[in-house]
Amino acid sequence: MNTPSHAIINLAILGKHQPSPATIPIVIGAILPDLPIFIFYFWAKFFLRLPEKQIWSEAYYQPFWQNITATFHSIPLAVMGVAVAHYCGWPAVKQICLSAILHSLCDLPLHNDDAHRHFFPFSNYRFISPVSYWNPRHNGAIGALIELLAVLAATFPVLGLINSWAGKGIVIVIDLVYLIGYLNFYGRAIWGVLKM
Ligand SMILES: [Zn+2]
Questions:
Q1: Which terminus of the chain is more exposed, N or C, with fewer CB under 10 A?
Q2: Ligand 1 centroid to 179 CA: how many Å?
Q3: Cα 103 to ligand 1 centroid, rounded to whole Å
Q4: How does the average pLDDT of the chain come out, rounded?
Q5: What is the pLDDT of residues 169-178, one digit of tens each?
Q6: pLDDT at 41 over 80
Q7: What's the CA-to-centroid distance between 1 and ligand 1, angstroms?
Q8: For residue 149, how far is its CA from the centre of ligand 1 (angstroms)?
Q9: 95: containing domain
């Protein structure tokens, strides 16, 4: 799933009964699992100056980056984080870890050959979903639609949770980018099916 989607969906699910300061840890926990991927991309693109294709087909699959990404997408490690934070009385850390668990649960059904190892380091199992959130060769039209609809549905409660107009604006801009992106990419194919 795309990183901004996690922030909006996690806020809608976890933010319901929270005071507004808790929305920040939820957003941090929603983004954190994908942080190694951003750092990797920045490194590969601007330091190694690799071409886009090589970045995602080769460099991304190097064990070093795969292990860091798996660590940040690990459900058992995040569960341990929740337990430790609860025991130590760190509510913000607990929210971050809960949000990271939800991130992984949302990624699980929407990744095909780029599936993460969500049970790392205890298992290297990857759930290869038949539906990808981006790859048209693996039902990307359906996966991207599921993500789009989930984000749009989550938008209404999230707008109620965010106090700042800048924050509300960011959410609406993300929605519009997704909507236009989806119609741009899959719209012609959908229109072709409807006309038949
Ligand atoms: Zn992710």
A1: C
A2: 20
A3: 6
A4: 92
A5: 999 999 999 9
A6: yes
A7: 6
A8: 18
A9: 3-195
